[in-house]
Fold this protein.
Amino acid sequence: MALSRSVSALALLLLACSARSGGDEAPADAGSGGSGGSGGGGGAAGATSFALPPSVDLGAAPHAVAAADLDGDGLVDLVALVDGALIVAWGAESNPFSERVQQPLSGTAESGVRAGLAPRDVTGDDVLDVVTSAGVWKNLGGRSFDWSSFGDEAIEAFRPVAVVNRGNGPEVVRGSAYGTVELCAVGCSALPGQPAPCSTPDQCPITDLSTGDFDGDAYDDVLAGRGTSASSMWSSVDDYAQALVANGVVASDCQAGDVDRDGVTDVVAGASDRSVWLASPGGVDPFFTTQSFPALHPGALSALADADADGCLDLIQVAPAFDDVGVRLGSSSGQGCAEQLSDAWTTVPGVTGAVRLAQLDANGDAKPEWLLLTSTGVTFVTIPAL
């Protein structure tokens, strides 16, 4: 059925954001689709916990990191997308993440484009595969994988990607270098209602892409950002039959989560010098409220996570050039969380050298760890009580 919606100028900010949520839950990750921001607690259900090393040297800066038990041994493994390779570092009770397997990839992430990574079972064999925008690293069991591309150049592995469920089981959606959002199976085909593709790669790339239940129907909707150009949304209500397009919207580094715990995804949109919190109370026609405030620093990267462990999502920003991490706390209010963030930033001491900040359950103890994504790998850090 066709959509019938009126979209306010404020609501259109939402369309440039990437988010993670919806009917097909993913293992914790910090890739596109909330990419590169926070991953939330996760790991494997019933996983055996182990002590973490201070850091993991991957030999390159990770563009995206995820945590999932890929080999089924009950220990959480780390998955990373770096220049030149897709890496799985195996969890172990002794010397974790030292044993690895990798798939060589050519190319690298383009500036301003958030590379994606998603551990999901997309082949229906009850084991987790590793999904990138170039294809699927199929899990054969026994720590063996088989690369199956979508028929595109390997550099497409460094594009935004998400795994969606619109009621038909898991499907892969990716952003291309030519400015189109595509649904991928054996090959990839563009979703309807988009601007014409650009004539050359990276002239107008999809910069942010992920999913969330923004209309309250319990299935995944798709959000795509195009930097300073148009932004789009596809709804599961009409099975992605048409796009809502917002021309000229400028938003970046968007993060999503259920901030007010009403069961529907909310969004924090980052721009050059301010952030806007958008809350959707649900329904086919979401209503958005806002709270605007200065960023920690211009261009600071955002994440949504429960930093103070009170059950409410907080906004975390990391400013690599300033070696600053700041938190705006969400507060508890009865059975839900207050529909606002705190008035000021709380600066977290002792966190330096971050290219990006992620929050994952990396060792199966059901407690999320903070990961600094650095120029050579990841470093595990403790953020003090707030």
Observations:
- Helices lie at 9-12.
- The CA atoms of residues 91 and 178 lie 37 Å apart.
- The chain is about 0% helix and 40% strand.
